[in-house]
Amino acid sequence: MEPSTVHAAQARELFDRRIAPVEGVAADADAVAAACHAMAARFHRGGKLIVFGSGGPTTDAQHVAVEFVHPVIVGKRALPAISLTTDAATVTGVAEEVGVAEVFAHQIRHLAEPVDIALGISADGRCRGVLRGLATAHDMGLLTVALCGGDGGSVAAAPAVDHVIVARSADPRIVKEIHVTVYHVLWELVHVFLEQPGALTPEVV
């Protein structure tokens, strides 16, 4: 059965809804590059990446960590990264004892070093757990990076966040799609800086 003109128009509209948010992130290329350079400098100094998020971003955090630890592109350097969302016993235990909002902050206090990178992912920019995790990381001296959706919310506005990338859409599905693209770009540019002689001299923190 051939698709109707109406259905074809609906398909185009679905693609069109994704254009503006993607173009918005692309327009922030300087900010993305700055975040990648800062991340590469931390890796260069021996730091690791610590990733976290609640709900849908839980799986994004796991995806990001495995991308860095086990690159799918042959010959690329593996980099240390962990997700704070994979250990169900720790997550539920901390949530029961001190509250859901402290799940990531608690782990960061016990697992992180000042040279590390904290990457928090929040689909609407309002996740209290992500905000608390980033604030704790900042207080400890970690580099803090946030991927947010919507208008960025309280996470993007927090002074504890060094670098913010926002997928400006109210549709969580579109935010998810853009975040996947963004963290693939982060991975790729981090490697560009690490592989380019002199790119990290002088080092940034």
Automatic annotation (TrEMBL):
Q: Which Pfam family name is an example for this entry?
A: SIS_2
Q: Does the keyword Isomerase apply?
A: yes
| Keyword NADP annotated | no
Q: Which one GO biological process term can you cite for this protein?
A: carbohydrate derivative metabolic process
- Which residue intervals define the domain SIS in the entry? 39-202
Q: Which Gene3D superfamilies match?
A: Glucose-6-phosphate isomerase like protein, domain 1 (3.40.50.10490)
Q: Provide the GO MF annotations for this entry.
A: carbohydrate derivative binding; isomerase activity
- What domain of life? Bacteria
Listed A to Z, the keywords are:
Isomerase
Which protein are we looking at?
Phosphoheptose isomerase
